[in-house]
Amino acid sequence: MDLILQRENGVKATPGELSADGRPFCRCLEDPVREIAGVPVERWKVKGNTAIPAGRYRVTMDMSARFKRFMLHVLDVPGFDGIRIHNGDGHEDTEGCPLVNYRRDPLDGERLADYDRGAMLDLEARVSLALFSDEEVWLEVRNPELST
Fold it and tell me: Where are the domains of the chain?
């Protein structure tokens, strides 16, 4: 299974769209992108307030010590530990983890709507089925195109 998180430009947060196997799936929200290409993560990361670097990451499902339940886990993210895909409303609900929801806040494009768990539960079900079928699951995170 291939998941693609296409980021958009943001100021306080980074909105985006998540697709699953080439089909649009849901909205995403992350902390601000601070990534500087070619510069080590520790030089640009602001702890607890930075989106993970763009790249391709393996996804699994395992027990989260923090949330005390099985969750999607994004593996081997340079400079980050414990990256989970979960629900939330705004960048204050994450410390680098992508948040998912079916809708954005109609009044603020840098927030998701109504702490809804639906997209997260649906994504967990799809990923669980793929993993149960011995299929690898990958997340490709793409930064927005720079405007010229």
Answer: 2-142
pLDDT in tens, 83-122: 999 999 888 899 999 999 999 888 888 888 877 899 999 9
Q: Render the burial of 93-131: b for 16+ CB within 10 Å, e for the rest.
A: bbbbbbbbbeebbeeeebbbeeebeebbeebbebbeebb
The CA distances from residue 132 to 4, 106, 117, in Å, are 21, 37, 22
Would you tell me how many other CB atoms lie within 10 Å of the CB of residue 11? 7
